[in-house]
Amino acid sequence: MCDTAGVLGRDHALSGAFAFAALAPAMHVPAGGDLATGIALAAGAGLLPDIDHPDSSVALSFGFLTNAFSWLVEKISGGHRHGTHAVIGVALFTLGALSAAHYQMLAPRAAFSWPLVPAGLYLALLYSAALRALKIGGHHGDLIGIGGAVLTVYTGSDLLTLTSWHVPMLALATALGCVAHIVGDELTHGGCPLLYPVSGHEFHLLPRPLQITTAKVAETYAIFPLLALALALAVWHATGHRI
Ligand SMILES: [Zn+2]
User: Which pLDDT score is estimated for 3?
Assistant: First the structure.
């Protein structure tokens, strides 16, 4: 299934996961649960920009709720592959994640409290979208996503602070996933209007003859296995092994 006119959803999820895993050693992410959380978050965030399309994995995560939200985003952001595929979109997604993380920090552990709710909902969306795009868990994907989100907000592993700026992992994984998504779409014929709404110019990373036509043979038989291999190598490296 094509995740809208852009790259396939599963490839977006894999590229988000790869971006996080590849940078994990530089961000000093401890191997283990924290690394797994970051990779899962970035996989979900890799699908986030396509929330501007009602047929995308992320828009279908929670039925009509996310579908209606996606319809709204599509209207506000200027249509599919506009605002959410630009610098402004990445900045807003990251700011939203940052706010949810900071609010989550106010929650006392081991009990229900309202500050856990925004981050919990956001995490459930990311996990469920990633599972849906990667076709993991089948009909139970959403439940697994919700369970994973509850576990993560209670352990607080999404709040692990990274880089010298002490950015919570939730925000950093969001930014990396979104950037990986846009890079992916920029390899296709469509390109992305990075400066939207100032300019509608579509940026590409490849000259026209090399641009990828989505959902075709190359994407199925070359890009998916390559991304899976790159992710496996990045995880191998991030867990302290030599390549
Ligand atoms: Zn896209």
Answer: 43
